[in-house]
Amino acid sequence: MAILTVDRPAVRNAIGLATMDALDQVLDAAADADVLVIRGGGDRAFIYGGDLKELAKIRTESEAVAMALRIGLVERVYPRAEFEESWRELARRIASSPGRPIKSVIAAAAPHHHAAQEESAARTFAALWTADAHWTAVAGGQPS
User: Fold this and answer.
1) Strand 36-40 vs strand 2-6: parallel, antiparallel, or unpaired?
2) Whole-prediction pTM value?
């Protein structure tokens, strides 16, 4: 068992850049643990979210891109001059992948339309998300 405590109670355990680096190291070190308990220090908040004071220091486009990539907000960033061609190529690759998985993911991702089917939708979404065909399509290839 591993116990991880985000101990920044003065800022309600907000995640800053240094905290992200420390989390990366601790999570790597705890990779073999059977159980990982994550706690927040202090008694005001578990983890409040991103450290807005640190995020407010981001002033350039390159700093914003680096942060978006680092936290997983985006997977790719295209220069403005390449954007139109790039998104269209990505859309073509997605459209040429197997139709059923993509349509099923879209349907499963919107269970609020069919509240009674939420559990089934969540299971379907999880199965499709973890399927090899999904990750092959994301990588730009065709399923074998």
Assistant:
1) parallel
2) 0.48
